Amino acid sequence: MQPILRVTKITPRTIVSRRDLLLSASAMVAAACASEQKSGMDSGPDTGVDPEALPPITANADFYVTSSMPTPTIDAASWTLTILDRGAVLQVITYATFALLEGREKEHTLMCISAGPGYPAIGNAVWTGLPVTELLDALGIAVPEGVVEIKFQGADGYSTSIPVGDLYDEGLHGPLWLVWKMNGEDLPPEHGTICRFLTPGRYGMKNPKWPTSIEFIDTPYLGFWESYGWSNDASYQASGLFQNPPRSTSVPAGPVTVQGVAFAGKDPVVAVNVRVDGAEWQPATLTYAPGADVWVTWSFDYEATGGAHTLQVQARTTGGMTSNDDPDGTGALDGYDGGMLLTITGT
Predict the structure, then answer these.
(1) In the chain, what is the greatest distance between 2 CA atoms, to the nearest angstrom?
(2) Model pTM?
């Protein structure tokens, strides 16, 4: 399947529901550039249920890609990452810097803020890097006084910002990481080439790729997607998705195992339930649940009978968040907070 670049530009005035948002986005993406976006969870035509198709770690080639601009060409020999304090240069990192750093592995799930049943853009990988506070310490840089945010600028023109508190492990956000490997390999071009940032607790738009500068700033900054109405806070919501099968399917009558993922950022999902045709919720089996910042995978045994029947998933977290019963979610620009609906037709 050819990747498709997601270059959607949408203003809140044009959106009346999450379904409208996704349809508008799909149309604009297809018209803009039908060759640079992929989501490893979209498996093509319905083929029934494959109980072996839910790995806890997403292969690099299958990991979703969402970018505001085409993937930039970056020359490692000339690439630099400039660290600034309100315009003043504090330090410049080059590619050679990474040879001096001993990175650690961090399993971390990324989810696009526009993800949902129609665009299941979520993936889980093992990244190699360091918390940014440790990098700053190694460079002899202290966090400046009086700053409120960190602004990121990318080689593709993308920009965003996060609260300076995200440098640290506080509540449902942080600590910010800089990573340079993905599943043991150098970052693929579409995932950052040299390096990228991981911001625990916040959607993918706050995890910028291809960075050329990070700047400590003393006034709030509105980034690329935020300027089009997407949530500036971008904190993860509790949500559940069917992955296998990913959408409506027909199966022979009899026992069927359906599978999916659930995620809520740093607030770990501790329970997943499924209901059939709007009846009582039944517990699903958690097949992978390592904790904060990582998705849960789950399975549910269903007895398919003749005709079409709906299954819906519900996720619940340690902190008490529960995915919304609306399968489309509630806040189109705030991140998906629903429980996906799946139709299975028994034949």
Answers:
(1) 68
(2) 0.87
